[in-house]
Amino acid sequence: MVFFKFELKRFLKNPKNKICLGILIVIFLGLFILNEILFARSFSNIELDIARQNLQQSTQMVSTLEQKVSVDQNNEKDTIALEQAKIEQKILEEQLLSLEKKDYERFAQLENNLNYLKLKSISDQNSSEYKSIKAKIDYYEKIESIGAEHSASINNSKSASFVASKSMMGWLASTTILVLLTVLISDSVSSEIESSQIRFYPLIGGRKLRYLFLKLLVPAMVCFLLTAGLFSLLYLFQGFRTNFGAWKYPYLLPDGTLETVGSIALKSLILYFIALLFLSSLGQFLSLIFKKSLVVIGLIVVFLTGFATFSQEEWFQPIKKFLPFEYLGYGQLVNDIDILPNNSFTIAILYLLSLSFVLFLISSYLYQNFFYRKG
To answer: Membrane-crossing residues (predicted)?
Structure first.
């Protein structure tokens, strides 16, 4: 317990760590202000523009079909298509009016009616278009079943539970955040080698494995608790600002499946903590090899940014699922859901924990056999 307090104080009093923790707070607060306050009006305008564009296209379609029917009135196919196009046009007109009145419940209801209309016109139930529309209908019905409020678009709610969960999923998988965390937690051992503090550790029993484990755990724990605390504050602020919402609110994944925002928040936090342990254990391992903080931090940053650079390349797609950097955030798993197995979250936990354990064992061996030589 004494060594735990010592490590905690050492980490919090480090000037570099204070700056990085402050930057982390500013980034999270800045992203929240930009996304939920400053950009809110622009998003509403975009939704209105899309509704007007859809109505304009529908009107043009009706006009084109009317011309075809007037030329050949015996064409049953064009006649049926014209009737459906007029129904869609009427729905789109009502949708535009509901958006202008900010009646999102009515807008969502009309959108669901439109999806049902489109679904009836698709004969192939195995087609991607059919599955996409069916997923949107399931999304609407799920919101109805829990009595939650609808929004103007899918995966876009102002409730606190939804905003907090979506933010966790996206921000905690960000390369920028992971790089900042690397600067925070990866040099706990190398900095002590450089400052010569490590030579005093044998005097207080610091060569024991539990002390090396505390050097791994304390930085990860501080970053995790700070992040969880920030998101809790953002959740409360958004809740009082709009509404707290329901943790059972659905989120439509890219593969068409639904997941509750509560599940997304929990998985994001779990994987975030495990990612912190992995980055910390990787930092320890590299520290005991290179013994220079800049080298350790630089190598991990190169790994992270290099992976982010290549991750969009087509040739890299079959490879990246075998690399640990693919699993450092739940948002990354969701984005790559098409190339990852169904149990990718479980795989991520086992993979990162296993690597962290192996790296810790190797670091333990190097740490116990490390001898400080001055000069």
So the answer is: 21-40, 168-190, 211-237, 257-282, 294-311, 345-367
Asked if residue 198 lies in contact with residue 192, where contact means CB atoms within 8 angstroms, the answer is yes
d(CA 332, CA 354): 19
User: pLDDT per position in the chain (375 positions), as tens?
Assistant: 777 888 888 888 889 999 999 999 999 999 888 887 666 666 667 888 888 898 898 899 888 888 887 777 667 777 888 888 888 889 999 988 998 888 989 999 999 999 998 888 888 888 888 999 999 999 999 999 998 989 888 898 889 999 999 999 999 999 999 999 999 998 877 777 665 565 555 555 555 677 888 889 999 999 999 999 999 999 999 999 889 999 999 999 998 999 999 999 999 999 999 999 999 999 999 988 888 889 999 999 999 999 999 998 999 999 999 999 999 999 999 999 989 988 999 999 999 999 999 999 998 888 877 654 444
Burial class (CB in 10 A: 0-12, 13-18, 19+), 270: middle
CB 297 within 8 A of CB 187: yes
State the pTM of this model: 0.89
